[in-house]
């Protein structure tokens, strides 16, 4: 009977191709079930008007990154596309830093990358990766509609679940998806969020079918053993998980292997162990688990003689880990050791990587910094090597962060950005490779330098440029840009314009609602003696502060605060509350020095400002006038 239901689901999705958006069904069953003997699978696989593909995840093999979508793209591209892969990636707006990953995967199934990913760009790159794969699938589905049947989906990698969830949200009549899931088996904890989102999406569209008990039990320890942990193919899968940025899935397997080696007498060759440790260190660093990275480096040190570059990579990753810990002096010691190892090997590329890491270390790895306090000296030789090895993203970071940090230079940008020679080169490179995040960060750097030095016109200029560079202005980040524009306008004394941008920031971030429909039980058509209530309110505040002191004695402080409360009526929710304060440190005067032992700090202060309150109920502004009886003399009046 379960076969019949599963066949019916597949037939329903196939018939919806070209007609139904969000054409997907989640099939849930108990215990294990295989789809390979289903009648519909054999029937549709040779159909010429659609590309019909089935995939069944394995209990004892590592699930690959974006499995099976990447293989599907590769197969459809070779079958239906006449152009080159580079042309196809350009058409699909694949991020240029990630194109070598796709190229190497398409060529031989083993991923490689030119430039190392930066820790502050992990989430951005993961999002770009998912966007690229979704766009590829959509482009290919325009050539030939696609039906994808994924069975035992509970065994899929996290990246596969994330991509599937994205596809389920995409309006496309040419892609149909069937997900078969064994309800008996639990989903790994790190993938719960993605799995819950898929279930919620399918539930909302009533596309979840429970088709019964398959009757075939799994072996109790089936998920505790992966047969490809010891094989070269297993290493290939783990490598690809890392380079396709599925770090949670890679860490899950790499940690399990390491535990088995240490505690279960699991035996693999020392060379393979060395290779796996390098992957583990990279994953730990990019997940910001530096303690785990350092622990793995200790294990790597014992195996560094397995490769001639072993000593280099031990010192390189120790330096990288310390750099991201903020221990820059310790990092520099290991950088020097790594460089010496590269020189001893006569390997120019390894020497280059050590020199680049030294430059990164001087700028804290470009991690959680706004700008450098002073310009950093970068050798012309390193710049030449960055160009020669096509490290354009790193070069862009160097141009943006290492130079043009002086306030007097940034101030000239109001007349022409050409005065910011290196900054302009960095932004141009970021645009060339399509690094939108770096462009935004570059503008933010100038905003911070300008605003902290009173150059509010320049700060406003780069706030506007950040806004213009954004693809999605109706986002939380867009709201922050509006807030920044408002702050600079406020500092320039243009309070009315500032208020309008504060209001835009509030609106963009989805603030407030007047909708109470459906909340109240007493709104029901048939009334009984029942009542209910619900209260919901939001408060959104933005605050800016300017402080100035002269000679350590005279102080001026200006504070601008904008508060908005959903408790008030539309159009009257936000208000601007300025305040000003002046103070005089009397104890700094010469005539007070003789009293310093008695009065160490004497300050006179005066301040003036305004504030508001929201001490009303959430929906008090919805109240309307009503008739009421009241006593008037000896009568009751209405």
Number of helices: 23
Query: Strand content of the residues, in percent?
Result: 5-15%
Shape: globular
**Fraction of helical residues:** 40-55%
Radius of gyration: 31 Å
Q: Segments where pLDDT lies below 50 for 5+ residues?
A: 512-531, 623-630
Count of β-strands: 11
**What's the rounded overall pLDDT mean?**
86
Spatial gap, N to C terminus: 72 Å
The structure class reads alpha/beta
Topology:
Elements: H1 2-16, E1 23-30, H2 39-44, E2 51-56, H3 69-80, H4 85-91, H5 99-108, H6 122-143, E3 146-151, H7 158-169, E4 175-182, H8 192-204, E5 208-213, H9 232-243, H10 247-263, H11 270-286, H12 290-302, H13 310-325, H14 328-345, H15 348-362, H16 380-388, H17 392-402, H18 407-411, H19 421-433, H20 436-452, H21 456-469, H22 476-491, H23 495-508, E6 539-550, E7 554-565, E8 574-585, E9 603-609, E10 630-632, E11 635-637
Parallel strand pairs: 1-4, 1-5, 2-3, 3-4
Antiparallel strand pairs: 6-7, 7-8, 8-9, 10-11
Helix pairs in contact: 3-6, 7-8, 9-10, 9-11, 10-11, 11-12, 11-13, 12-13, 13-14, 13-15, 14-15, 17-19, 19-20, 20-21, 21-22, 22-23
């Amino acid at each position: 009977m379960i076969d019949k239901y599963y066949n019916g689901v597949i037939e329903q999705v196939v018939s919806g191709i070209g007609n139904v958006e969000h054409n997907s069904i989640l099939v849930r069953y108990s215990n294990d079930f295989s789809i390979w003997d289903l009648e519909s699978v054999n029937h549709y696989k040779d159909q010429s008007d659609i590309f019909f593909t089935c995939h069944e995840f394995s209990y004892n093999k590592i699930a690959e990154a974006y499995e099976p979508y990447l293989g599907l793209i590769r197969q459809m591209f070779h079958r239906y596309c006449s152009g080159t892969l580079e042309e196809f990636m350009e058409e699909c707006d694949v991020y240029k830093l990630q194109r070598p990953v796709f190229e190497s995967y398409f060529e031989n199934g083993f991923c490689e990358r030119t430039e190392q990913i930066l820790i502050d760009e992990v989430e951005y790159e993961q999002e770009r990766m998912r966007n690229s794969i979704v766009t590829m699938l959509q482009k290919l589905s325009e050539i030939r509609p696609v039906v994808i049947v994924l069975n035992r989906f509970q065994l899929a990698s996290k990246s596969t679940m994330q991509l599937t969830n994205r596809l389920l949200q995409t309006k496309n009549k040419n892609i149909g998806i069937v997900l078969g899931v064994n309800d008996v088996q639990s989903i790994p904890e790190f993938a719960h969020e993605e799995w819950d989102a898929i279930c919620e999406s399918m539930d909302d569209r009533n596309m979840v079918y429970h088709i019964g008990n398959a009757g075939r039990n799994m072996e109790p320890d089936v998920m505790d053993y992966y047969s490809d942990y010891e094989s070269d193919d297993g290493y290939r899968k783990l490598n690809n998980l890392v380079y396709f940025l599925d770090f949670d899935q890679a860490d899950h397997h790499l940690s399990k292997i390491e535990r088995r080696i240490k505690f279960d007498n699991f035996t693999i060759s020392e060379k393979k162990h060395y290779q796996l440790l390098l992957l583990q260190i990279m994953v730990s660093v990019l997940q910001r688990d530096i303690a785990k990275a350092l622990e793995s480096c200790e294990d790597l040190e014992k195996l560094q003689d397995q490769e001639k570059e072993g000593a280099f990579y031990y010192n390189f990753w120790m330096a990288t880990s310390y750099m991201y810990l903020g221990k820059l002096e310790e990092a520099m010691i290991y950088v020097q050791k790594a460089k010496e190892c590269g020189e001893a090997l006569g390997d120019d590329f390894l020497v280059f990587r050590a020199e680049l890491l030294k430059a990164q270390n001087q700028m804290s790895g470009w991690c959680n910094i706004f700008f450098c306090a002073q310009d950093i000296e970068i050798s012309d030789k390193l710049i030449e090597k960055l160009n020669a090895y096509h490290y354009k993203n790193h070069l862009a970071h160097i141009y943006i962060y290492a130079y043009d940090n002086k306030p007097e230079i940034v101030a000239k940008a109001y007349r022409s950005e050409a005065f910011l020679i290196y900054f302009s080169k960095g932004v141009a490179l970021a645009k060339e490779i399509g690094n939108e995040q770096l462009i935004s960060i570059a503008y933010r750097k100038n905003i911070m330098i300008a605003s902290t030095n009173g150059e509010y016109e320049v700060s406003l200029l780069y706030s506007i440029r950040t806004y213009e560079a954004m693809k999605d202005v109706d986002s939380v980040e867009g709201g922050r840009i509006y807030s920044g524009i408002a702050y600079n306008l406020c500092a320039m004394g243009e309070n009315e314009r500032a208020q309008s941008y504060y209001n835009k920031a509030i609106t963009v971030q989805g603030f407030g609602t007047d909708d109470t429909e459906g909340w109240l039980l007493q709104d029901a058509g048939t009334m009984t003696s029942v009542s209910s209530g619900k209260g919901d309110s939001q408060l959104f505040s933005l605050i800016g502060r300017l402080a100035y002191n002269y000679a350590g004695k005279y102080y001026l402080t200006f504070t601008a605060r904008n508060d908005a409360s959903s408790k008030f009526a539309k159009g009257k929710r936000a208000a601007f509350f300025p305040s000003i304060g002046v103070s005089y440190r009397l104890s700094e005067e010469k005539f007070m020095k003789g009293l310093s032992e008695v009065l160490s700090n004497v300050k006179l202060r005066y301040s003036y400002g305004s504030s508001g309150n929201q001490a009303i109920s959430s929906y008090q502004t919805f109240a309307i006038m009503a008739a009421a009886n009241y006593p008037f003399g000896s009568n009751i009046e209405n």
